[in-house]
Write the structure tokens for this entry.
Amino acid sequence: MNIAVCVKPVPDPKFYDKITINPETKLLERNKIPMAINPSDKNAIEAAMRLKELLGAKVILISMAPPEAKEVLKEGLAMGIDEAYLLSDRAFAGADTYATAKTLAAGLNKIGLFDLILTGSESVDGGTSHVPSQLGEMMGMPHLNHVMAVETEGDILKIKTKIENGYMLYEGLPPMVLGVSKEINTPRYVSLMGVVKAQGKPFTVWGLNDLQLNADDVGLAGSLTQPGSLRTPPIDRKVEMLDGDIEEKAEKILKILYAAGVLN
Amino acid sequence: MLKFSEQQEQLRKVVRDFVEKEIATIASKIDQEDTCPVELLRMTAQLGYNGVFVPECYQGVGLGYTERAIILEEIARHSAGFALALMTHHLGVYAILTWGNEEQKQKYLPKLCSGSIAGLAVTEPGGGSDFAGMKSTGELVDGYWVLNGRKCFITNSHCADINIVVVRTGEDEKGRPRMSVFVIDENTPGCKPGRKEKKTGLKGSDMGDVILDNVKVPASNLIGKPGDGAKIGLGTISEVGRSGMAAIGLGILRACLEDSVKFAKERIIYGRPLAKLTNIQFIIAQNRTDYEAGRLLTYNAVGIKDAGLPCVPEISIAKYFTTEAAINTAKRTIDLMGGYGVICDYPVDRYLRDAVASIPSGGTSYVMQIIIAGSALS
């Protein structure tokens, strides 16, 4: 079995209080805080590793990201992934989900054929959940998102996806693209030996020319959507002293919370 | 400039990830309950921490003492007590790795890398650094060594599976005590934990007596040669014990620095963050300076150890500086936090207790100064 895991480096959730948005480009200023593997992409890596351990598989990791993402992606190698591919080129900058999926699809097609392509169901920075479906369409594969369990029965994949108030069960044959949600597993901790072994694993970097794409197809130029007006909400502290007895104060607090939209 | 390799940086990142999820969340509970979370030591074994400097042929990771210091700093950032338990396990591992014969290495190191816990029992009621005053004995009877005595202030006393003990096995031709080292297998009759001490800090690592009551071990359990006890005991403590304590002190220093910065930025007083006050900035500056100095001293010292060069003075300096600085930094951080500094909802009082308890571990600051001065004056 050949499995690919698509990974997105995102601003480390531990530093969310330090995230800023460039007022001109409307993009996150990613270089100002450390990057980490998108949390649900880690679940995708873990799902791939479990299938590898169960069935035997070659697992590769692929990402479209700036060159600095190399260290972040090595964590995937340390978790047990066999090889990593970083698609990195200035032309890829500013890509929306469509252009991202297109670039990833070009990279995956260049690498070879896959039985399973796994992604996280959504990124914690963009949060659109577009890429798994877009990738499936571009790769010509069936695709499911918000996958919370994958089991195998012979060649058949039995898949459970999350829906509001329940789940759906699917059965299908590979190849397919699955966007996994955090419920699917708990990603393993990286062992020190994993870190050591990761240093010697193949790590390939491809640019625009390697993927035989046009500059107009990728990055901001190839994006079908553009960020609209983004702003950082003011987070000011305010102190207001309330008068009255305890019931009056409680009533005032409720009014304030309703007015602020905390309660509705 | 201190610069870690890419691999070391990644190692720190993955260790931090583990520590923040599995240790930071229970650090306060570990301190309050004052019991060693043995299950955590089994987990760290699976991740390679317990055998970080053991070669791969003995199922270790094959890294060095810099990586070990990184692990201990990261753990001590949140739980210096648990870091001490792992640090002490490393002492037993080091003694076997460095002075054990091939058969002993093959027998014990894979176990100690994969979850069995080691302890090193040297100190006795008469003192720790006074090897010659040791009273525990080992007698060769019918091809077996019979060990008797009481060891005290032994970390991992109540959770170690495999104990390394130093005992008196006779006298040399000049009448000086001949010390020897033995490894005691798990569940060996007569070897048992005794009184458990209640410490000021570094709670979460067991510390107490190890009782040797006619403990019978085969001659093959002797590590090194008869009479190698002082060399093995002191060699282990002076290089691996004290460098471990330096890394633990460094973790406490970082905890104080990070918590003082966070508090100073968040606490609003007179309508603005505490951090805007100059006197608070002085505290932050002192905390940062102590951490940076400790970091340079500690990683320089373990770097020398990794290079295979003599490192005892440098390690003593690092241990002396970081543990003393940790006390001062924790005290300053408490001062900075005012009333919040002394309530148990904040961990800074634990940092101070841990820092105080780290002074005697591996030799007091006075012993460190004697070593440092001896090196400078030689």
